[in-house]
Design goal:
The radius of gyration is 16 Å and the shape is globular. By secondary structure, the chain is α+β, with helices and mostly antiparallel strands. It has 7 helices and 4 strands. Strand 3 and strand 4 form a beta hairpin.
Length: 155
C-alpha cells in the first residue's frame, strides 16, 4: 500500500499483529482505501500449462479468484481478468514465480517479474479482489495474518 494510504490506518497503530488479525475493520479500511496497493502471490511449486489454461488443481489461484469475484462483478469483467491472468502467466508457471496484482483506483494491473499485461478497469473490481484475501471469509487466512503482521512491523 502506498504510504499515503497508511494515514487511514492510524487508529490501528500500536496494535499487536495477533490482535490486528482479528480486527475486520482494519482489513476493511485497507480494502476500501483508494491508494495503490499490491498483492504478491508466490508460487511454491511449478504449475504446468493444462492447470493454468483449464484452471484445475494445483493452480487453484485463478479458480478461487474467479469464484470469489463472480457474485460481485459483471461476467465480462471476470472474463477479462481471467484472460489477462492467463496472458501474463503464459503456458507454465515455474516454482518461485511471483504474480503481482496491483490496484490503482479502479484499475487492476497484473504482472510477473518477467512480464506485464494490460490492465482491467471496472468500478468495484479492486475492492472485490482485495476482499478475496482480506474479507470476512478469505481464501487464505495466512495471507490475511501476514498483512496484519507486516503492518504491525511498520509501526
Amino acid at each position: 500500500m502506498e504510504s499515503s494510504g497508511l494515514s487511514s490506518l492510524k487508529k490501528f497503530s500500536g496494535t499487536p499483529a495477533s490482535a490486528l488479525a482479528k480486527e475486520q475493520p482494519f482489513f476493511d479500511a485497507i480494502t476500501s482505501s483508494r491508494p495503490a496497493k499490491t498483492l504478491l502471490l508466490r508460487f511454491h511449486r511449478s504449475v504446468g500449462a493444462p492447470a493454468v489454461v483449464e484452471r484445475q488443481p494445483p493452480f487453484m489461484c485463478s479458480q478461487a479468484l474467479r469464484d470469489a469475484l463472480k457474485p460481485k462483478m459483471d461476467a465480462k469483467v471476470v472474463s477479462k481478468f481471467e484472460s489477462l491472468l492467463s496472458d501474463v502467466l503464459g503456458g507454465s508457471v515455474p516454482q518461485g514465480s511471483q504474480l503481482f496484482l496491483t490496484c490503482k483506483g479502479d484499475a487492476l494491473h497484473v504482472s510477473t517479474t518477467e512480464s506485464t499485461g494490460p490492465h482491467v478497469s471496472a468500478k468495484g473490481l479492486c475492492p472485490a479482489l482485495i476482499g478475496v484475501y482480506l474479507g470476512k471469509s478469505p481464501i487464505s487466512q495466512p495471507i490475511k495474518a501476514g498483512v496484519a503482521a507486516g503492518f504491525a512491523k511498520l509501526q
